[in-house]
Amino acid sequence: MIKVGIVGGTGYTGVELLRLLTLHPAVELAVITSRGEKGTKVSELFPNLRGRVNLTFVEPDEALLKGCDVVFFATPNGTAMNSAPALLEAGVKVIDLAADFRLRRIEDWERWYYGMRHACPELLAEAVYGLPEANREAIRAARLIANPGCYPTAVQLGLLPLLEAGVVDRQSLIADAKSGVSGAGRKAEVSILLCEAGDNFKAYNVPAHRHLPEIRQGLTAVAGGSVELVFVPHLTPMIRGIHATLYATLTQPDVDLQTLFERRYANEPFVDVLPPGSHPETRGVRGANLCRLAVHRPQNGKTVVVLSVIDNLVKGAAGQAVQNMNLMFGLPETTGLEQIALLP
Known about the structure:
The chain is of the alpha/beta class and about 350 residues long. It contains 11 helices and 13 strands. The mean pLDDT is about 95.
């Protein structure tokens, strides 16, 4: 059994990790931390886990965490980087669901994450970006995983086939993305109160969202050259889900887009390319570790439109982290992740 620790078990991604891992056949949940809820039984805070998780929240304790095989950090940005070096030295694998290890250049990280100084910049080059559909073999050999952001997952999976095949203009990409309110985290903030976010719709961080450099970095790696991307996120009045509408200008107008996408993802267990003319919905992936894609060519014939939907808490966070853990420990990639979407 894989002994698992979770640092930050009370946020939305933390409890989603608990939901997935408690039914994982190869996992033993060993440590779940929360400074604010220490001493509280996990099942008291999250009644859906009653009878499944018998642990009590404890304060982060390096000695306890060093007894684990893998530790997930479901914490705010800037937390995992302070603990990762000691855990790695003790032979513990680390999967960070925040952004501490996503950007490879220290100057980019310190610029986009509020000027915060990185605690272990020497690990940025070692960390493997945990998008299995692009980095599967590197993930298998990794001891430190930077779990991708939710927007970057939806956008990259939608654009990867086009950039890998070199059939679009790399300098004119557009990502118009919408997220449910849980993407903002489990915190008290006026803009995500029910009376503010409900029955409302708005764009935010249009000039510069901190996921932009992460998306560019990933797309550049597969494109073999620099990319230019306009990325506009929106907040929608739903709890969970991301819908990304992606636009690119074709440089090879005769390419069979449907075949291109179907072949690229034919062997990917968590990417579903829908039939021509389809329009994926966020509810079709809710609760599932799945990205659904549909590719369209408008009447002008020069533009390709890709529709990409994920659950931001699963394929966009906790589910993808478990997928990475499976790869790191030599398990079948789908282990513990075969849930179907929740309807209605």
